[in-house]
Amino acid sequence: MAQAQAQAVAAPSAFVASPPKRADARRNYEAILVAAHAAFSRDGTHASLEDIARTAGVSIATLYRHFPSRGILVDALIRESLGRLTARAAELSGAARPIQALREWVEDAVAHASLFRGLTTLLHAAYYAEGSPGYESCQAMHAAALRLLKRAQAAGQVKPSVTAEELWAIILSSAWIRETSPMEHDQSRIVLRFALDGITSSPQM
Fold it and tell me: What predicted TM-score, i.e. pTM, was given to this entire model?
């Protein structure tokens, strides 16, 4: 199922959802995203669209007017999440301790990437699927993360051989553990700590 979802995200779409200009339409658009976020976190990406519309306080016709398919709705959530990560990286780019800024951003990225079951597979697909709705957002996030990484490397706090792509692999691996593990058996923080200690010039923990 995750494979099929990934293929859906990777396939280029002629329609890319974007916030409407009219205030009332924008409110509906944002309410649908909030409701979808909660539903997907609880039930995965196959959550009922009718329930999402009902929670958002709109008709199913309104939902489909903004998001003509389930895949387009998922893509919109992915792009919104990646946009927040990109903005967060920019906020941290001037932090006094580059390694601490990088660690904080990676922890935020793991939290974003594990918001709902199957998201890590979708993000992995979007990262490499040029032409997909999420690709440009992934590349913007990649560039922002690279700046944090380069800054930590310039300070001698991260090994110079580490790449942004390897950092992304660490994020998705840790997020996959978090999204697939029962809360009482979640070892993602330990795995993430070991991975980050492994790329730093001197462990920070």
Answer: 0.80
